[in-house]
Amino acid sequence: MPEGLIIKGVGGFYQVESREGFYECRIRGIFRKKGITPLPGDYVDFTITDDKKKEGWIEEIRQRRNFFNRPPVANINRLAVVLAAAQPAPDFLLADKLIMSAVLNDIEPIIIINKTDLVECGIVDEIEKVYIKTGFPIVKMSKITMEGYDLLREKLKGKCTVFAGQSGVGKSTILNNMISSSLMETGEVSKKIKRGKHTTRHVQLISLDCGGYVVDTPGFSLVSPDGVHYEELSWMYPEFEKYQSLCRFNGCNHIKEPGCSVKNAVSTGEIPETRYECYKRIYEELKELHEKRYE
Ligand SMILES: Nc1nc2c(ncn2[C@@H]2O[C@H](COP(=O)(O)OP(=O)(O)O)[C@@H](O)[C@H]2O)c(=O)[nH]1
Ligand SMILES: [Mg+2]
Ligand SMILES: [Zn+2]
User: Fold this and answer.
1) What domains are there in the chain, each with its CATH number?
2) Which residues line ligand 1 at a C-beta cut-off of 6 Å?
3) What are 221-274's pLDDT values in tens digits?
């Protein structure tokens, strides 16, 4: 039985990419009975019903590595967290939440600092410093100088990557520059197009020229904030790790506890203040959620 990858699904039809080409597939009723909806990113086994028209049936969905509801997509293994050096100013809190949901789902985050052409390099370095000790790859990019594009290609090659970040940071621009055909709407165009028109967009895997796939989503939350307990949050901060074991209290949450080695590292500048402040904010948010639920 041929195997393939679901690229997109529209109205009960699924576009499946396989070694034999693209097929338009429907799904067996049994899936619906079981309450299973195939997603872009799913690996499937399918049978061909008409080889001329390239039609078939999806027979089996392979076990997922992970899947998300917003955007609906399966088997992601990279999350590109895109920040702009300016216009808009970096939203570090959002970036940390995205990073958190990636780490939680065993997805490697890549930090992209875009629009480096708009600021002095000292400012780009400041933003880079926030993430340098996380060990996550960082790519500095600009559509003007084309800085970073080769490095990004290298990082995304053969992977399935979701692009996320504030609106206007340049996600669609980056993706357009990575593929030969322009598929994504960028800021300037989309305002015109969106007005008056329905804005429903289907999640779609876009094939990169360098191999691999990307997903561009306007609204985005991989994060279900209740997916993590507040006392586990610090595990999502790799740069805290080497200090955690040195805290005076076992199970220190690095908030108000005395003898906290993490807080000490923040005060000496070993851990960036920005990351720690975001940690505290997210910690409080998660704690509040938890207390609301269990009180
Ligand atoms: N100066 C500069 N502008 C950029 C860069 N990348 C994107 N932009 C602009 O930023 C705006 C928003 O870009 P867009 O790709 O639509 O952002 P998205 O909302 O994240 O998809 C557009 O006007 C782009 O032309 C860059 O590297 N440098
Ligand atoms: Mg966009
Ligand atoms: Zn501590």
Assistant:
1) 3-63 (2.40.50.140), 69-216 (3.40.50.300), 227-294 (1.10.40.50)
2) 114-115, 117-118, 142-144, 167-173, 186-188
3) 555 556 788 999 999 999 999 999 999 999 999 999 999 999 999 999 999 999
